[in-house]
Design brief:
170 residues, 65% helix, mainly alpha, 2 domains, single chain
Length: 170
């Protein structure tokens, strides 16, 4: 039997990633709380060119888009500023992708407000650990039902439980 130890490099990378996801989820909740405190309805996050919009003005909409772009990487900002005519086909596709990211981000904010417009019962986002635990337990449940496997299922379950305990998956 081989004694398998989860590599430290993978553990560190996984932990770092989960922490970043958790921080991003908490940041999104805080941002939505600010929108609610300012009494911004979800319909403000629709282009003023749309009939469904209550956006106060084109300037307000432009400011929202600028706030979204301010959070982008330097490379994404650079490609947005470049005149489209000066770009090759690959760069044009990249620019369209980044422009789509602006709309997608605004839509995410709008949908967050629609899911919980008054903020009275905020939905706590699941942390990466919560999600990983749920996936881990679902997989463990499936493995426990296997019967005719080319390896010892009991040993596999013991190893999976050890991994779960190591990474606090419950």
């Amino acid at each position: 039997m081989t004694n398998f130890t989860f590599p430290t490099t993978l553990a560190n990378a996984t932990t770092s990633h989960v922490k970043a996801i958790t921080a991003a989820e908490k940041s999104a909740v805080k941002m939505l709380d600010v929108y609610r405190a300012e009494k911004i309805p979800a319909s403000h996050l629709v282009s003023p060119k749309s009939k469904d919009s209550t956006c106060p003005s084109q300037e307000w909409w432009d400011g929202l888009r600028e706030a979204v772009v301010a959070g982008f990487s330097v490379e994404e900002k650079r490609i947005l500023q470049a005149p489209t005519a000066s770009l090759d086909d690959t760069a044009k596709k990249e620019k369209a992708k980044v422009q789509g990211k602006i709309g997608s981000t605004i839509k995410d904010i709008k949908n967050g407000l629609l899911r919980n417009p008054d903020g009275k019962s905020p939905v706590q986002p699941k942390t990466g650990l919560d999600k990983a635990s749920a996936d881990f337990l679902a997989y463990l449940g499936k493995v426990q039902k296997y019967e005719d496997m080319p390896f010892d299922v009991v040993e596999m379950i013991a190893l999976l439980n050890a991994v779960g305990n190591k990474f606090n998956l419950k």
